[in-house]
Amino acid sequence: MRILITNDDGINAPGLQVLEEIAATLAGPAGEVWVVAPAFEQSGVAHCISYAHPTMVARLDERRYATEGSPADCVLAAVCDVMADNPPDLVLSGVNRGNNSGENAMYSGTIGGAMEAALQGLPAIALSQYLGPRTASLADPFEGSRHHGAAVIRRLLDHGDWTSDADFRLFYNINFPPVPAAAVRGTRVVPQGRRQGTNFSVVPYTAPNGRRFMWAAGGAQNAPARPGTDVAVNMDGFISVTPMRADLTCHASLREMSGLFDDNTPRQTEAAETP
């Protein structure tokens, strides 16, 4: 198996080293692990691509490259250039330092990399490690993902829904809970949730020269969410697995609104029509 890995924390991030170990286990002795990751941290860039300017791609070692772009840029660089002659069988993005459960998923460059892989028609999985008081004292805060990651991915590869005939191919978002590996209670397939009473915000700052700046600030990561969602099960010690696709359509509303404009849309006056 040929596996491409990327992330949004940067090519020197400890979570990427964890993912390299996971990928090597999955690929086996006869497989290959390719790394194409951002040269610098790209957290919060979501599915951004460097559309308006060129992106440098640097070869650091055999099957190891760094780009000056986003995780989605990295996947494009791999699929369309670095690995163009022999594309990967699987794309893994992460392991992110911090969770990408709930509303965090919308901002995540880690998920953006997996999403781009799915748009390119490739099986893809995003992985993130929830952090908290119980991981802060660990010698390895990625202990949960390091210990359980390969087994969860194998289960998905063997039994997951890898629908590829839809307009938007499925990919998966995995979040490991903020507990030691031995305290993980199991794995749950759940929908994306949202933390209640908290949002991203900004902290304004005035520089000594009088110019106005801002720092983006995340909300409380331990805020409650609806039971049975990724946030809730993570906080309860479970690994969450959420199937996703790059389709933002609200299909329930489509059904409810069917016919809404069929009969009562006002006629547009012809440009040439006179009063």
From TrEMBL:
<comment type="function">
    <text>Nucleotidase that shows phosphatase activity on nucleoside 5'-monophosphates.</text>
</comment>
<feature type="binding site">
    <location>
        <position position="43"/>
    </location>
    <ligand>
        <name>a divalent metal cation</name>
    </ligand>
</feature>
<dbReference type="Pfam" id="PF01975">
    <property type="entry name" value="SurE"/>
</dbReference>
<feature type="binding site">
    <location>
        <position position="9"/>
    </location>
    <ligand>
        <name>a divalent metal cation</name>
    </ligand>
</feature>
<feature type="binding site">
    <location>
        <position position="8"/>
    </location>
    <ligand>
        <name>a divalent metal cation</name>
    </ligand>
</feature>
<comment type="similarity">
    <text>Belongs to the SurE nucleotidase family.</text>
</comment>
<protein>
    <recommendedName>
        <fullName>5'-nucleotidase SurE</fullName>
        <ecNumber>3.1.3.5</ecNumber>
    </recommendedName>
</protein>
<dbReference type="InterPro" id="IPR002828">
    <property type="entry name" value="SurE-like_Pase/nucleotidase"/>
</dbReference>
<dbReference type="GO" id="GO:0008254">
    <property type="term" value="F:3'-nucleotidase activity"/>
</dbReference>
<dbReference type="InterPro" id="IPR036523">
    <property type="entry name" value="SurE-like_sf"/>
</dbReference>
<keyword id="KW-0547">Nucleotide-binding</keyword>
<feature type="binding site">
    <location>
        <position position="96"/>
    </location>
    <ligand>
        <name>a divalent metal cation</name>
    </ligand>
</feature>
<feature type="domain" description="Survival protein SurE-like phosphatase/nucleotidase">
    <location>
        <begin position="3"/>
        <end position="196"/>
    </location>
</feature>
<keyword id="KW-0963">Cytoplasm</keyword>
<dbReference type="InterPro" id="IPR030048">
    <property type="entry name" value="SurE"/>
</dbReference>
<keyword id="KW-0479">Metal-binding</keyword>
<keyword id="KW-0378">Hydrolase</keyword>
